[in-house]
Amino acid sequence: MPHELSDAELFQRLAQAGESVMEAIFHRHYSMVCKTVYRIVPEPETAEDLAQEVFLELWRRRESLQISTSPVAYLRRAAVNKALNYLRDHKIARADDTELPLLPDAQPGMQSQLEAVELQRLVDQYIEELPEKCRLVFILSRFESLSHAEIAEQLQISVKTVENQMTKALRFLRQALAPYLSALFFIFAHL
Amino acid sequence: MTIPDHIMLALSRRWAGETLEQEQRQALEQWLALPAHAQQAQYLQRVWDAASAYPSHYTPNSQAAWQNFQFRLHPSDTTATTNTTSAPIRTLPGRRRLWWMAIAASLMLMLSALYYWWLKDNEPQQIRMVAAASGGSLEVALPDGSLIVLQNGSELSYPEPFDKSKVRWAELRGEAYFKVAHHLKKPFRVLAAHAYIEVLGTSFNVRAPEAAGSVEVTVENGKVKLAAQNNPHDAIVLQPGQQGISTAAGGMIQANDAELNALSWMTSKLSFRNAPLPQVVEAVSRHYRVDVSLESESLNQCTYTGVFQKATLDEVLQTLQITYGLRVVRSDKIVLRGGSCRK
Q1: Does the beta-carbon distance from A173 to B51 stay under 8 Å?
Q2: Which residues on neighbouring strands pair with residue B182, listed in sequence order?
């Protein structure tokens, strides 16, 4: 029954109805929350731990919850904040790499020989190979639609740096995926 | 060729749905006006679009996570459940793990079967590209019997071998007329800019200028499905004589009647039936590649009916001059001055 309710209805009932409603919300949005966190902290176990905390906080606050946007937007924002806070707290442990990785030489005839799964894996891999700051700027702009000013504030860097990192990321991905441009088009046009 | 930083930023902002500052927007539009630049932007957009599935290799399991979550909701409750009604009965960890391993194993089996099936139908293909150099159109005869007439300056890419896979497809940059051979079991797909066009066997025209952002499809025979590439299931079906426009902005698609003048570059024929004069002027501008405009707003209400078959621009202008009593003023562009709707 709870699965047929809209997100807004589920969230409204959360305070009174309790765990069964929570379970419906959990199953419906767990994957989105995990993936949102993962894009910022690309470690599966960490992403899942942080996702648990996002839902746990939702549960604890269920009686006083005031959602001004949509429930999905609320959860997504909570996931982004959780992930960014995690990064802030663990800054020392992370390598401060700023160099772009070297790309393998493109082989002629390589394009469109790749399977869709393989190509998607390659896209994932190149995104994860970006230096951290560069990757974060790209992710926050590409997936979270944050403005350059908002990204600058979140990462505590200047707007100028955000812009530099953004173009750096785009240039790298464009160059890395250049041999597969026509295959990219064909495959992703049909997803 | 590389894209300058400020253009890259403007493009990424636009794709991310941010509003551009006036100055930024102007710089971007100016830069995009050059076809070679527009193509660079299109390549970059493919990369941007391809990232949309990230992270595709990561598939969190909400069932297992929910179990975990319940433990966190009731930290003291480590044995079997006592009072909650909605919580499922917890089994011992060892058995639960076995259960998940079984699920994972069967999932793996299903996935590899799927992958095998997918491979079977996706032999490696080469992509062949043909281009109609400026100065003339180019006829491309495909192995399946389809004929494509490329407008000058346009490019067509298609897989080789062409009819090995389940669908026939070609990617178009620019404008082309398609006469697709009928194959009941093999639809023919045309990818043009952001638009997705699918047919079984029919003839139609696709106009996808890189700068304009919208793709026009005009149907001569048969039925044509038109959709946005990111949402191919939400398609409109165009009938003969109809035109569909797929705009880049929201991927919005609308169908309206057309005079088939979109085909004029090939047929040298412009025909109008009670067509509003501004529409006539636009078709004439496009066909003769000149800039013609109406000066007097009162002419916007006039309609025109008639056919120009292999007419010269002068003949067309003269006809309009006589019909509406207007004056043709030529400078770097052509302005139609004065006149009224009387006939």
Answers
A1: yes
A2: none
Give, in words, the CATH class of A95-191: mainly alpha
Beta strands B242-246 and B215-221 are antiparallel
Q: What is the pLDDT of residues A53-79, one digit of tens each?
A: 999 988 888 877 777 777 788 899 999
Chain A positions in Cβ-Cβ contact with residue B230 (cut-off 8 Å): 189
Q: Which two tokens stand for residue B2?
A: 């590389």
Residues of A in contact with B62 (CB under 8 A): 26-27, 30-31
Q: Which tens digits make up the pLDDT trace of B99-131?
A: 777 777 777 777 776 665 555 444 445 777 888
Q: How far is C-alpha B39 from the chain's CA centre?
A: 14
Judged by a CB distance cut-off of 8 A, whether residue A18 touches chain B is yes
Contact assignment for A112 to B69 by CB distance below 8 Å? no
What's the CA gap between A150 and B157, in Å, rounded? 41
User: Is A44 exposed, middle or buried, given 0-12, 13-18 or 19+ CB atoms closer than 10 A?
Assistant: middle
The predicted complex's ipTM stands at 0.83
Nearest neighbour of B18 by CB, restricted to A26, A147, A174: A147
CA distance B340 to chain A (A): 49
SS3 B75: coil
DSSP state of B239: P
Return the domain boundaries, chain A.
Answer: 1-92, 95-191
Residue in the structure block whose two tokens are 């295959």: A183
Q: A71-89 vs A44-60: helix axis angle to the nearest 10?
A: 120
Residue of B nearest to A19 (CA): B86
Rounded CA separation A36/B52 (Å): 12
pLDDT tens digit sequence for B77-94: 444 333 333 334 343 445
Return the CATH fold of A1-92.
Answer: Rna Polymerase Sigma Factor; Chain: A (1.10.1740)
